Every structure is written in C-alpha cells, then in structure tokens.
Amino acid sequence: MNTNLIGEQIAKYRKAAGLTQEELGKAAGVSTQAVSRWECGGAPDVALLPAIADRLHVTVDALFGRESGPAKDISNELIQWLRSLPEKDRLTGLTRLLWDATIYGVCDDLASNIPSIGFPENAEMDMLANARRVMLRTVTGIDSGYIMGVGAEDYAYFGVFPEPEAGYERYFASDDEYRVLFGALAQPGVMETLRFFCRNEQALYSAAAVAQRTGRPLPETERALEALAEDTCQLNKREIILPEGPVTAYAFLDDGGLVVLLTFARWVLQGHNLYLCTNSLSTQPFEREEEENEKA
User: Fold this and answer.
1) Residues 92, 141 within the same domain
2) pLDDT tens digit string along 159-174?
3) Which pLDDT value is given to residue 80?
4) 159 and 24, same structural domain?
5) Torsions phi, psi of 222, nearest 5?
6) CA angle 162, 146, 112 (to 5 degrees)
7) Cα–Cα distance, 64 to 66 (Å, whole number)
8) How far apart are CA 172 and CA 170, in angstroms?
9) In the prediction, which pLDDT does 291 show?
C-alpha cells in the first residue's frame, strides 16, 4: 500500500495548477514547510483536505487517488465556487482562475515552457536593460482567438476574445470614428482632465473648477472638456442655474470603457517588453529575482 498517496496527489495537482508550496500553504492556513512535509511522506490533517482540494480545483476523492465520479456541469460548478467566495473576492478569484487557465490550460506548448511563477505579488517588474517598469503580461494567440491579461496580487485583469466567425474587423468602429477619438485624446489638457475625473468621478465640475484643480489654463481646459463631452462621450454636459446665472458643468460617465482603453493602450505602448506567450518567453526578470534572493 502506498502510504504517501495523499502527499503524491497534492504534489501532482499543485504542480498542475502552477502553485508554489507557499501559495498552497497560505490557502490551507499552514506553513510552506508543512506542505513540503506532506509531499515528502507526511499527510495533512483531515480537516484541511477541503481547503486543499478547493485551492487545487479537485475533489477530496482525487486527493486519495479515487475517481471523481460522474462528469459534472463545469459551468455550474464554477458559478457555485464563485458564490462560495466572499462577494468582494469573487472578481479576484475569477481572475486567478483565468490566469491559471491561460498559462497552464489553453496551450500545451506554453505550459511546458513557462517557469512556475504562481500568481505574482506585483503586476509591474523592472526591466534590466532600460530600468523601465513594465507590466507582467500573458498573451495567448491561438487559431480561435486571444486571451490577454495580467495576473498579480496588486492588479489583475483579463480579456478573452474568441474570434467571431465574421472576423474581428466586422465589429470595429469606422476609421473616421477612431480618428475622432484618438484626435480628441491627443489634444492638450485632455488626458490631464480625464485623469482628474477618474479620481473625482462622483461630482459635477465647472471648467473653472477643473482648471484650478489640474493647474491647466482655463481656455485649454474648456476645449478639453468639450472634446471629452462631444467627441469621446466620456463626460456628461449639464447646465446648472445659479443665482448669478447659468453655469456649464461636467460629470464623468464611467462605464468601465475608459479604464479598459487606457490599460490596454499601455499594453500596446510597451510592445513586447515583457510578456508570456506561446511564441516568446522572457524569464530574465525571474532569473534576476532568484539572484537577488540568493544574495539576500
């Protein structure tokens, strides 16, 4: 009889999930050393098995090497799993799942070549060549579409883009519409005004108030506000009646699109500085991190 069956199963499923012993230990509320002891011949307390199985995305039966039973409705299982999490943790939980699925599940050649980095703490990493901070990104381009995202404790996001039968371009806006959008964003003061409203999105502001708080000239601010209201539809323009007369005020219309646009714009601007994909893999930052840890 194999007395270390549970430990072997834990090690197998942990590696398949791309988790470190430390990450699994945190999920189970134990130390890294405890996980190491399990995998080297020990066994966890039976009360810890549900938490271990949940983090490894397997059944408790699987930890004993038993068949998991009849096929389950994965969509329903995922929904039930998400509902089992505190509401504030559900988006993060879903993003972690997408990170693991993208790196270890979508493309076999990616899973076999990528270093085991788990779910990093920081989304940004220093590049050795030019001391820039870039996003640690994963992009998977396959025949059926793209998965693009960042997986990290401080900032995580993912976009899944299966290619439509009619092709991507079928759903693009017209060239002229894009020219209006990007032309508006390129005007002086527009990006500063957008950032201001992103930080102060719950109120109405006059042009004078925005100019005062951003430190930009009033005429420039007025043009920026008009561009954001008329050309990009990011601001709602309203007229407020005050004792001294009517005043035009602006409110931020946040539907999430701006956050996505600016985040993926940074992706495009950084090009291939650092990302994990099926055709290219840079491990330089990880190697440097290991060297720094050894020196410490």
Assistant:
1) yes
2) 888 889 899 999 999 9
3) 86
4) no
5) -60, -40
6) 125
7) 6
8) 6
9) 44
Whether 57 and 192 share a structural domain: no
- Tokens 């989304």 belong to residue: 123
H/E element holding 246? strand 245-252
Q: Are 99 and 156 in contact (CB under 8 A)?
A: yes
HSE-up of residue 211 (Cα within 13 Å, Cβ side): 14
- Determine the Cα–Cα distance for residues 31 and 67; give it in Å rounded to an integer: 29
- What is the reported pTM? 0.62
- pLDDT (tens digit per residue) in 167-194: 999 999 999 999 999 999 999 999 999 9
Task: Kindly give the parts of the chain with pLDDT less than 50.
Answer: 1, 278-296
Dihedrals φ, ψ of 149, to 5°? 180, 175
Task: For residue range 226-246, list pLDDT tens digits in order.
Answer: 999 998 888 999 999 989 899
Residue 224 sits in a domain of what CATH number? 1.10.10.10
Q: What tokens appear for 34 in the block?
A: 């405890």
- Distance (Å, whole) CA 117 – CA 169: 35
Please give the backbone phi and psi of residue 163, each rounded to the nearest 5 degrees, phi first.
Answer: -75, 125
pLDDT of residue 190: 94
Number of helical H runs and strand E runs in the chain: 14, 9
Q: Is 39 exposed, middle or buried (0-12, 13-18, 19+ CB in 10 A)?
A: buried
Q: 285 and 142 in one domain?
A: yes
- Tell me the pairing of strands 205-206 and 235-242: unpaired
CA distances from 123 to 18, 177, 178, 239, 271 (A): 17, 32, 29, 42, 16
Q: Count how many residues are written for the chain.
A: 296
Supply the CATH number for residue 14's domain: 1.10.260.40
pLDDT at site 141:
63
Please report the DSSP string for 176-216 in residue order.
HHHHHHHHHHTSTTHHHHHHHHHHSTTS-EEHHHHHHHHT-
